[in-house]
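User: Please predict the structure of the protein below. I'd like the answer in structure-token form so I can feed it into my own downstream comparison script.

Assistant: Understood. Taking the following sequence of 93 residues as input:
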Amino acid sequence: ACASSANFGMKGAGKLWIYERASPQSPFQLRSTLDTIDGLYDVAWSEINRDMAAVASADGSIGLFSMKSGSQIIWQSKEHRREASSVDWNAVY
């Protein structure tokens, strides 16, 4: 997965790029993309569910992305007043 933003992240849209490969020897293939209004700064995969990732956005939100949802944010938290620059997934056992 790769999170990106237009104009060096200062202002503009973002995109989440999801790649996969069939085997460790095969090249990466684009699986899906997700366009966002604001830039995306970081992405982290779930340690438990490989189909889910969390993304940090320039609008201060943290979103939960599921590849099973058809390339959509399935949950979003807007707790930050300024941009969220990073995100990390921490599995609780």
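That's the full token string. The mean pLDDT is 88.
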